[in-house]
Amino acid sequence: MKGGDGERSRVRLCSICKQRRPALKRPKTLEQICRECFYVVFEEEIHRVIVDNNLFKPGERIAIGASGGKDSTVLAYVMSELNRRHNYGLDLFLLSVDEGITGYRDDSLETVKRNELQYGLPLKVVSYKDLYGWTMDEIVKMIGLKNNCTFCGVFRRQALDRGASLLKVDKLATGHNADDIAETVLLNILRGDIARLSRCTSIITGEDGPIPRCKPFKYTYEKEIKLDYFSTECIYSPNAYRGFAREFIKDLERIRPRAILDIIKSGEDFRIATSTKMPEQGTCQRCGYISSQKWCKACVLLEGLNRGLPKLGIGRTRGINSERQKDVQQIGVKNLQSKACGSLDF
Ligand code: SF4
């Protein structure tokens, strides 16, 4: 038999529409599907996650944490599209943090400004300079490249909360994807950080705090989050520890694509013994932000910067001079360990 039906039957077709050629293989299901069907199933999967987990209620004001990177750009697009298509009745906003990193954040903020116009979502930018009096460029000039991500991560977390309360939103949606969450599960196990392990897989966190956060991309593979976006790496690159965990997860994914979802499932299924002491949440005596210590992490780090003692509260207390010991005791803070890029810190 030449050409015609015989030829067509040998050509692999999209496993959904059975008409077009497949353009990609889905890591979750290994299905080969065409681009058109991919967009439909991708958006409907996010819709299902939103509905099944009751992420939003009609009438709510929602801020989308927008960094200008691929995850948050796709999140802004999908959220505005689903809000319109399925009548969620949400008031959506974009919320960005300007850390003051020349050549990185100033460029990516341009992308966020484009998103503001493209999707018609009002944008609010909060900056480290306005909130804390320091840019990351100035902090790095003072402390070097060793603990910069600890400062940045702590400041970003609080900056997002402060921006969200300025916008008077009910929730903050972030673009953390399945790969990010699997990585965080692994890191929290490696660090023995039980308090974080128990909450890092939750799709909604901080419900007892001022602004709950949710992750509509919790089950979405990074590979599938693709759109016409601008992306670059921070010039003060994140520390190597998360980088190793990320590589390890990518290796596992190559051998067995389901590994990412399985790690999340393992994190979800961990049971924390009732005898495990969890930190009690209170408020910072200085700025009123949630804190399990006398001062919140941002106030401790700022105090160090403003007093020219940038290592205050970072690293181990053993071997530090008696003056800093006294400072640490007075502030009543446990020392912060340097972590990876705070944009991934839940
Ligand atoms: Fe901040 Fe991330 Fe850059 Fe570190 S890598 S300085 S946490 S943006």
Overview of this protein structure:
- There is one protein chain.
- With 346 residues, the protein is of the alpha/beta class.
- The chain is 45% helix and 10% strand.
- The strands form 3 sheets. Strands 5-4-3-6-8-7 form a 6-stranded mixed beta sheet. Strands 1-2 form a two-stranded antiparallel sheet.
- α3 (70-85) runs parallel beside α4 (105-119), α8 runs antiparallel to α9 (194-200) and α8 (178-191) packs across α10 (240-255).
- The longest helix is centred in the middle third of the chain and has 19 residues, at 148-166.
- Iron/sulfur cluster (SF4) binds at residues 99, 136, 148-149, 152-153, 234, 236-238, 341-343.
In the predicted model, the low-confidence regions spanning at least 5 consecutive residues are 227-231, 316-320, 333-340
β-strand amount: 5-15%
Number of helices: 13
> Helix-strand pattern, N to C?
HEEHEHEHEHHHEHHEEHHEEHH
Mean pLDDT: 84
End-to-end Cα distance, whole Å, is 60 Å
Give me the Rg, rounded: 22 Å
The biggest sheet, with number of strands, parallel, antiparallel or mixed sense and barrel status, is: 6 strands, mixed
Please identify the structural class as seen in this structure: alpha/beta
Ligand inventory reads: iron/sulfur cluster
Range of helix content: 40-55%
3D shape:
globular
Number of DSSP strand runs = 10
Report strand order across the widest sheet.
5-4-3-6-8-7
Keywords: ATP-binding, Cytoplasm, Nucleotide-binding, RNA-binding, Transferase, tRNA processing, tRNA-binding
Binding site for ATP: 65-67, 71, 97, 175, 180
Domain Cytoplasmic tRNA 2-thiolation protein 1 C-terminal: 282-312
Family: Belongs to the TtcA family. CTU1/NCS6/ATPBD3 subfamily.
